[in-house]
Specification:
The complex is a heterodimer of chains A (about 290) and B (about 300). Chain A is α/β, with parallel strands linked by helices and about 290 residues long. Chain A has two domains: about 10-85 and about 160-290, P-loop containing nucleotide triphosphate hydrolases (Rossmann fold, 3-Layer(aba) Sandwich); about 100-160, no CATH class. Helices cover about 40% and strands about 20% of the residues of chain A. Chain A is built from nine helices and ten strands. In chain A, strands 6-7-8-3-9-10 form a six-stranded mixed β-sheet, with helices on both faces. In chain A, strands 2-1-4-5 form a four-stranded antiparallel β-sheet. The N and C termini of chain A lie far apart (about 45 Å). Chain B contains twelve helices and two strands, in the order αααββααααααααα. Chain B has about 300 residues and is an all-alpha fold. Chain B folds into two domains: about 35-85; about 90-300, MetI-like fold (Orthogonal Bundle). In chain B, α5 (about 105-135) packs across α6 (about 140-150) and α10 (about 210-250) runs parallel beside α11 (about 255-265). A two-stranded antiparallel sheet of chain B has the order 1-2. The chains are: A alpha/beta (about 290), B mainly alpha (about 300). The interface of A and B includes residues 84, 144, 177, 178 and 192 of A.
């Protein structure tokens, strides 16, 4: 018992009675209202919702880039007051430093911590090896494919040993096949490191495939519409995406989101539009075709 | 715990490998048969065809320019523009060979180069840091920007009388004018570079534990580097323009003074020689800056 308590993994995210409003000339615009979420240590949690619902806003508040208007964000009981290396982040727009090689990018966080050159070089090499990128350590990001850039982005965020990893639609710009591979790489790293993950996506399949739990947000102003546990066993395989369990979860989430997407579009949709939307949503991810 | 993810998927890594190989020398690709000199030369030719073509056309174009110049002057064409007194290329060449043995001509050139070096270096050493600081700290920007905006449109030549009053020696006022000419393009471009720094990169650095000073050194500075070098290139061009004007008006020595003096002394070939020397020096200093840029920004050269 004692041993387990001592080794208790960290990274407990709590967001309580959270709201965030932007000031505009027409007065404050509510982006997120009355939201509570939590991520238990070592848990993989996704947030899905229609576009513009404030899911990225919520994630940016956990990262410390945005201050909540009301409410509080804590990690392991400590209030979040600004960005820190304790909360690693991966952005949709790769965000690698173009003037640094792959290895220098990965080393950046360690350098900021004051680690010696030889030590951080060794650490970066090990991490790049885990992600299958050791051959590209001397390349500049410009020469890498999108999937490789994002792998470097994930490795860079993990290099400093953060308590939690925040990902803001990290695979949104990748093609379907690369996305599936990246999802597996991410799951794999998460399982090895036992790190808490908060993952924002608009891809329902991605959310179900990766997560222990999925929060579904309402249309703007965003709040939590539903919290869906994903009981699928781990390790997860691509084939599970065809299982009846997966499809049931998918159907449920899809109808929740469709409701909200329609609300977000302001009810301008007639029957024709509904059909169009349907097709769009079903064709959204190619993953289930594979 | 199985690890299917660490098996590298060909879809993902193949294209990148191909890119990596394309960058290295053709001789380094392992499966290729030992290539003979002939095939290597042929391959080199195929890869560099566009560059060779540009060089060839460039040389032809320069030769054509010389030929037209030669014809216009030998036949003393008068057609709106009068070429009666314009020296021919051959006359300029002979005055060039004479000047090469004349220590005075070399001194003119060396003095101009020295003025450029001092004036431009000062402008870069003040303009770049000032631009970086103005881009980062709003208050400094708000204080300095209005003054800079009023002074900026004043051409360096218009500063000549003021410079003569301000500085005790002629030499100093000429350097000052050279400095002014290059200072504003450097400042403005550095500022522009700072305003274009991708905020996501700043946030990424913050998430990795970077503090203000590190963000400045590791993100803002390298991110604005391409624009800083644009500013340095433009600044170098304007520095020459300002220098020549200042030398013509108030100089003793210097290539601008040499050119103006040649006109006063009715040595027409020397006028053209001075002009060509200015052109070559300007071109050479731009190339130096471009080379420095490629050295400092290896991530931008391919």
């Amino acid at each position: 018992m004692n041993e387990i308590a001592a080794k208790a993994p960290q990274g407990h995210i709590e967001v309580k009675s959270f709201s965030l409003a932007y000031e505009t000339i027409e007065g404050p615009v509510q982006a997120v209202t009355d939201t509570q979420i939590h991520v238990r240590p070592g848990e993989f949690v996704s947030i899905v919702g229609p576009s513009g619902c404030g899911k990225s806003t919520l994630l940016n508040a956990v990262a410390g880039f945005l201050k909540p208007t009301t409410g509080i964000v804590t990690v392991d009981g400590e209030r979040v007051n600004g960005p820190s290396a304790e909360r690693g982040m991966v952005f949709q727009q790769y965000s690698l430093f173009p003037w640094k090689t792959v290895r220098e990018n990965v080393e950046f966080g360690l350098k900021m911590r004051g680690m010696s050159r030889s030590q951080r070089e060794r650490a970066a090499r090990t991490l790049l090896g885990l992600a299958g990128l050791e051959a590209f350590e001397k390349h500049y990001p410009e020469k890498l494919s999108g999937g490789m850039k994002q792998r470097v982005g994930i490795v860079r965020a993990l290099a400093t040993g953060p308590k939690v990893l925040l990902l803001d639609e990290p695979f949104g710009a990748l093609d379907a096949q690369t996305r599936v591979i990246m999802q597996q790489i991410l799951t794999n790293m998460w399982q090895r490191l036992k790190i808490s993950v908060l993952f924002v996506t608009h891809d329902i399949d991605e959310a179900i495939f990766l997560s222990d739990r999925v929060y579904c947000m309402t249309a703007r102003p965003g709040s939590i519409k539903a919290e869906i546990p994903i009981p699928l066993e781990r390790p997860r395989q691509q084939s599970m995406m065809m299982s009846s369990e997966f499809l049931a979860l998918r159907r449920g989430l899809m109808s929740l989101i469709r409701e909200e997407s329609l609300k977000a579009m302001g009810g301008e949709i007639n029957d024709m539009g509904m059909q169009g939307l349907n097709i769009e949503l079903h064709g959204h991810s190619l993953a289930d075709v594979i | 715990m199985s690890s299917p993810a660490l098996v590298r998927h060909p879809e993902d890594s193949m294209p990148a490998t191909a890119i990596a190989e394309a960058g290295s020398a053709p001789a380094a690709t392992p499966p290729a048969l030992p290539a003979s000199f002939g095939t290597l030369a042929l391959r080199w030719y195929r890869l560099n065809r566009a560059g060779l073509r540009a060089t060839a056309i460039g040389i032809i174009s320069l030769l054509a320019f010389l030929l037209v110049w030669h014809l216009l002057t030998t036949y003393r064409v008068v057609f709106f523009v009068r070429f009666t007194n314009v020296p021919s290329p051959l006359a300029v060449y002979s005055s060039f060979t004479k000047a090469m043995h004349d220590p005075k001509f070399l001194m003119h050139i060396l003095l101009s180069c020295r003025r450029i070096f001092i004036g431009f270096s000062l402008a870069a050493m003040i303009g770049v840091p000032l631009g970086l600081i103005m881009g980062r700290f709003k208050l400094v920007h708000e204080v300095v920007f209005p003054v800079a905006e009023v002074l900026r449109p004043i051409p360096a030549i218009a500063w000549v009388p003021m410079a003569i009053m301000l500085w005790p020696t002629n030499e100093q006022s000429i350097v000052f004018i050279t400095f002014l000419g290059s200072f504003f393009p450097i400042l403005v471009n550095t500022l522009h570079g700072m305003s274009l720094v991708d905020p996501v990169l700043v946030r990424a650095a913050q998430c990795l534990g970077a503090r203000e000073r590190s963000i400045f050194r590791e993100v803002y500075f390298p991110a604005s580097m391409p624009h800083i070098f644009t500013g340095l290139t433009v600044g170098m061009g304007v520095a020459w323009v300002s220098l020549i004007a200042a030398e013509m008006i108030s100089g003793q020595y210097g290539i601008g003074y040499f050119t103006w003096e040649a006109y006063s002394l009715v040595q027409y070939a020397d006028i053209a020689l001075g002009m060509i020397a200015i052109g070559v020096l300007g071109l050479g200093s731009s190339l130096l800056i471009r080379g420095a840029g490629q050295l400092v920004m290896p991530w931008r050269s391919r």
